Amino acid sequence: MTAVIETASLTQLELGEYCRRNGLYPEQINAWRQACISGQEAVQIQKMADHEQTRKDKKRILELERDLRRKDAALAETAALLVLRKKLNDYWGTDGEDN
Known about the structure:
Order of helices and strands: HHH
C-alpha cells in the first residue's frame, strides 16, 4: 500500500528508479494499484447496498409498527367489549356467554 501511495505521482522513469531502489517491478506496483482501486470500488458498492438495506429495513419497521398499533387498538376494543359483556351478564344475572 505504501508503494502505491509513494509512486502515485511518479513518471514512468521515476517509477523505474523507485522500483530498482526497492527491488520491485513496475508491474507489481501497477497490479497493487489496480487492487486498491478495485477494493475501493467494492467498498463503495457495499456502502450503497448497506444504505439500500437500511432504507428497506426502516420502511419495514414502519409497516410493522403500524400493524402493531392497529392490533393493539383491536385488542383494547375486544377487552372493553368483554368487560361490558361481563357487566351486562352481572346486571341481568346470567352466567352464559351466549346470553
